[in-house]
Design a protein that fits this description.
Layout (H helix, E strand, L loop, with lengths): L1 H10 L14 H6 L2 H17 L21 H32 L1
């Protein structure tokens, strides 16, 4: 439901817009395990890739789909976690490739 308020606010003229910080949720910023949220997103994305399916980020719930509820610091933490997962995945693939090439 909050998503609709955020989208509607983006369509308002600049002088009538509500500050984005008003959409931040203090409880989410304080209490939610963002690493877990990023893991959910990353696992769903990887599952779609493995199964050749189109990735639908709205088929599951994670705060990654609603970053406007987080303050800038917490968004940065979330994106950093996603970037780290991508990096580890890339490194793992490179290691497997090197091992496969050694055996060939």
């Amino acid at each position: 439901m909050m998503d609709y308020f955020f989208l509607a606010n983006k369509q308002k003229p600049r002088r009538e817009k509500i500050k984005e910080s008003e959409f931040y949720n203090d409880a989410l910023n304080r209490d939610v395990d963002l690493k877990k949220q990023a893991q959910i997103y990353y696992q769903e994305w990887q599952s779609a890739l493995r199964h050749g399916k189109t990735f639908d980020r709205h088929s599951f719930f994670t705060l990654y789909n609603y970053p406007w509820t987080l303050n800038a610091y917490r968004k940065a933490e979330l994106f950093k976690t996603i970037a780290n997962n991508d990096r580890y995945d890339f490194i793992g693939q490179a290691l497997l490739s090197n091992l496969t090439n050694l055996n060939a």
